[in-house]
Amino acid sequence: MKPKQVKKIKVIVDGRLYYGVENETIFQLLKRKGFDIPALCHHPDLKVKANCRICVVEVSGCETLKTSCSTKIESGMEIYTSSDRVIKARKINIELLYASHVEKCVNCSYRFECDLLKFARQYRLKINRFSDRKKNRKTYKFGKAVEIDDTQCIDCNNCVEACQLQGISFLKSDNYGINTEIKPVSDKDKTCVYCGQCALHCPVAAAQEQDSAILVDKMLKDKKKIVVAQIAPAVRVALGENFGFKYGVNVEDRIYTALKKLGFDYVFDVNFGADITTMVEAEELVERLSDKKAVWPMMTSCCPAWVNFVEFYHPELINNLTTARSPHIHNAAAIKTYFAKKKEINPKDIVVVSIMPCTAKKQEKEREELKYKGRKLVDEVLTTREFSYLIKDNKIDFNNLSKSEGREYFNSGSGAGAIYGASGGVMESALRSVPYILNKKEKEEKEQEEKEKGKNSKKKNKNGNIVKAENAKLEGSLEFKSVRGMKGIKEAEVKIGKKKLKLAIVSGLKNIESLIPKLSKYHYVEVMACPGGCIGGGGQPIPTTDEIVEKRMKGLYGIDKKREKRRAHLNKEMMECYQSLKNSENKDKLLHTKYKKSKRIVVKTTKDIPPF
Ligand code: SF4
Ligand code: SF4
Ligand code: SF4
Ligand code: FES
User: Exposed, middle or buried by CB within 10 Å (0-12, 13-18, 19+), for 1?
Assistant: First the structure.
């Protein structure tokens, strides 16, 4: 079939001829051609709302200025992007936005990336010409994770739409005109799951993560504590965006150095913890396969927003969730037990800070059932955005950092650990190790049988019960491409040994609802709350769009390809650590967790929160 011909449309911009395509908006054309047009409410994955009005342009023959994000190009259109009229209107509109947005720039962790501030500087504005009409509005705090600061809200409605796209609809826009206010709905059948998609789509940090950067800065100055950092798989392919790197570029080497420069005593990689999670999860899958009473499908549990969703909206699925803890909790357990013992450090002196693409992890770390001996395993969580802020606030020249200072303990994980940040990655990692575990289990069972028959002594593997991975006959496929990609629901069937497994992979919480009625046909289901997985997480750099997430995804698979060991069980250092955690009398408290039906979250407002 002949490809459909795209109709070209001639337009004149600032006196020069350009070709646009049918249905393109003026804004899309101008962006494509490299024009610098300010925009705040526009997000390529959301509906056009055209309410910030700073993208205005002049169109010949039209009496009023046009918002470029909502006006389609027409043949012969004459557009002016920087006439006096346009500049004057943009200036007034930015100033009016500042009347809605109380300037907290000095203490704002978004100040290095904030477009509103950038535009104010670019247009040389006095940003306090109009009085702050929202200074008495509330801040709504959702758990320890996310907040909506209504004193800063410019009423663009992006957060409301982002939450609807997650299928949650916990936010609403109340009242009209200058009284418009973003607030949580009062419906008791709805709750926030802390996914942070509202914050990821807010152009002015009115919806944002609850700040931990200042607290971590303080911790780093407290020399009595050993403060360690651990970085999640998805952070390394996104952080560079805030420093001018291309989308998806892996900057992990610089990250290690930056963390040491910030004052962290040790730097660990959550990819190592992801390898532990893979082993726990793959072993559970193998156990369920041989248990006639097992609950199916087994569902992943490393996404805390998904776990929150199950506990509130679908408690009937609690027994489907794997008992595996999430990778940064596993890694922290390894640090506070295995590593602390090796280094002869009192675990009470260690403070673990996770650097995550995720806002929900801020709440996850507080869970009672994840504590060990009454104390949190992860003490603080910084999002990728907060980490970027700390680097910039401490004037660390990230682009010119030397590589890899600080990677001293544990390794940076297998390729399987690296892909945890992408939708399908958790499942693919487990599938890479299931054949090994099945093989090992069969071998152990055979040995047991032979032992019972009294003739096992000579045939016993010289490593005891642990069959060396390299000796395993059955490694199975390495890459499972059918589970990869950006689609909200993916389905696949794989053969592992003699077993055929039916799989489903969901990203973007909204998509799970349509799968729930047919869950019984699957063996294994992965759910990540954020579209595309953690690379599109609520704590990632702004902007995050589907197109950008795809590039970050490629970055992760690139890391996997380059790793010498691409299956978790081939990570020998991790296997030693894992075995030691498994042998511990507290193994259930270090490796496994449980879930329970939950109630709607209690939303706190600034009025309920005591001052410092
Ligand atoms: S964190 Fe997620 S669930 Fe909560 S309000 Fe924001 S988008 Fe909605
Ligand atoms: S909180 Fe942010 S995203 Fe939501 S309406 Fe206000 S400015 Fe827009
Ligand atoms: S998908 Fe990842 S970033 Fe998003 S809520 Fe889940 S764990 Fe966090
Ligand atoms: S970006 Fe066009 S009106 Fe906001």
Answer: exposed
